[in-house]
Amino acid sequence: MIGFTTLKRVLLGSAAFGFAAHAAASTLTLDVYNPGEKAIFPVTSVLVSGEKEAILVDAQFGKSQAEQVVEKIRASGKQLTTIYISHGDPDYYFGLDTLTAAFPKARVLASQPTVDHIKQTVDGKLAFWGPKMGADVPAKTIVPDVLKGDSLILEGQKLQVLGLEGPQPDRSFVWIPSIKAVVGGVVVAQNIHVWMADTQTPQSHADWLATLHSIETLKPQVVVPGHYLGESGRSVAAVQFTAAYIKAFDEETAKARDSAELIAAMKKRFPALGDESSLELSAKVAKGEMKWGE
C-alpha cells in the first residue's frame, strides 16, 4: 500500500518529471509478450523502449518462451541495458538463463524483497517445477542483483517501483509516469482465475486491495496485467476485475462448506474465466484441505 505522503510525492513528481521528459527525450513505448495457453503460466514480459535503449520487465518461465522474448528484443533493434524482475515467483525469472546468454551485458535487477523471496524459495521451486518443464527447464537459475533505490532510468525517463514501503513489499509494481503506465508485478490479472493461494489471510487480501486502489489513484492510461489469457484491453478495467475477484473469493469462501462448493460458486460468478486449475488449488488452500507455502 502506498502511503498518502508517498503517493502525493509520486503524483507531483510524475507531473513535473513528465514535462521534462517530454522536452528532453522521445516517448517510451511498450511491447508486450504473453504466451497465453501455450505455456504453463500466461505471465507477461514487457519491453520498455526509448529511442536507442530498452529495459525488459520480467523474463518468462520456460526456455522456449524466453527465446521468443529474445527474438522480440533483437527485432526491436534496441540495446537492452537492464532486465528487471518484478516478482519472486519462478514464472518471472526462470527464463533469465536464456536471456542473459543472449544479452550478457544487460544488468539483472530486482528489489530487495524480490531478491530475498527468490533466495528463500528458488531451490524448492526448481525441485517442484523442474520435472514438469521438460526441455524448458533452465540450465541454471539466476538471482538478480539488488536494485539500489526504487527506480530505473531509461533515456532520462523514470520507471518507478511502487509498493516497497507498504505492508506487502514483495508484491510491488512498476509505474512509468511519463506514459502513465503500470507494468510488472503479480497484483493485476485479467481473463483468468486469480491465484489466491499465496495470500491466505484476510489482512493479506485487504493489503492487496489497497495496492489495487493505489494503482487506480495514479489514474494510469495503460495497465499491463502480470497474468492474463486472451486479449487484454490494458486498461484500469484489469485492476477493477482483480479487486472484484478478491472480494468475491472472500465472500464465497465464508459461505462454502468445502472447496467443491467454493469452486462451484466462483465458476458461477465468473463463468468465462480460464485457468480453472488455479481456482481449484486456491480453493483447497482456502478451505484448509491442502497446505501451500507462501
Automatic annotation (TrEMBL):
Residues 42-227 form the Metallo-beta-lactamase domain. The keyword Hydrolase applies. Residues 1-23 form the signal peptide. It comes from the Bacteria. Keywords: Hydrolase, Signal. SMART domains: Lactamase_B (SM00849). Coiled coil: none annotated. It holds the Pfam family Lactamase_B. InterPro entries: Metallo-B-lactamas (IPR001279), NDM-1-like (IPR050855), RibonucZ/Hydroxyglut_hydro (IPR036866). PANTHER family: METALLO-BETA-LACTAMASE DOMAIN-CONTAINING (PTHR42951), METALLO-BETA-LACTAMASE SUPERFAMILY PROTEIN (PTHR42951:SF14). SUPFAM superfamilies: Metallo-hydrolase/oxidoreductase. It comes from Pseudomonas laurylsulfatiphila. One of its GO terms (molecular function) is hydrolase activity. This is MBL fold metallo-hydrolase.
